[in-house]
Design goal:
By secondary structure, this protein is mainly alpha-helical. 59% of the residues lie in helices and 0% in strands. It is built from 4 helices and no strands. The longest helix is centred in the N-terminal third of the chain and has 30 residues, at 3-32.
Length: 135
């Protein structure tokens, strides 16, 4: 890898970590300020509850970490029917931290353990992620 590629990859890694940190702060603020009655309120139609949305987000992150960075501690999954806002906030903070570590390792340019993002067959990653992290 040339020095220019290394620099771009390192900048991308730092940006990805900052983005995950900002995303987690926003999620934490949303849950913290949410009316408790809204947490499990059933929306019209076939939409998920707010609890189901946040637990799904966390659980997808845990799968991504498990498949891509097995050397990292994989956060425990959350159960959408029983998860409280407090548990969701703790779980999201942990999964965001693991994803940030994974991204820094993969995109940091320091020759980390992660050479490629692993995913389930139905998930389509963006061209940028495939190009930056391909072996």
């Amino acid at each position: 890898m040339t020095t220019r590629q290394q620099k771009v990859r390192t900048q991308l890694g730092r940006a990805a970590v900052k983005i995950f940190a900002a995303n987690d702060r926003i999620n934490q603020i949303l849950i913290e300020n949410l009316d408790p009655a809204a947490w499990r309120a059933k929306p019209p139609g076939k939409a998920r509850t707010i609890a189901a949305i946040f637990t799904h987000m966390h659980n997808v992150r845990t799968k991504w970490v498990r498949l891509t960075a097995p050397h990292l501690k994989v956060p425990r999954q959350l159960h959408r029917a029983h998860c409280t806002p407090k548990q969701a906030r703790a779980g999201l903070a942990e999964s965001a931290a693991r994803c940030a570590e994974m991204l820094a390792d993969a995109l940091g340019g320091a020759g980390g353990r992660i050479k490629k993002f692993r995913r389930d067959g139905w998930v389509r990653l963006g061209r940028l992620a495939r190009k930056c992290c391909a072996t």
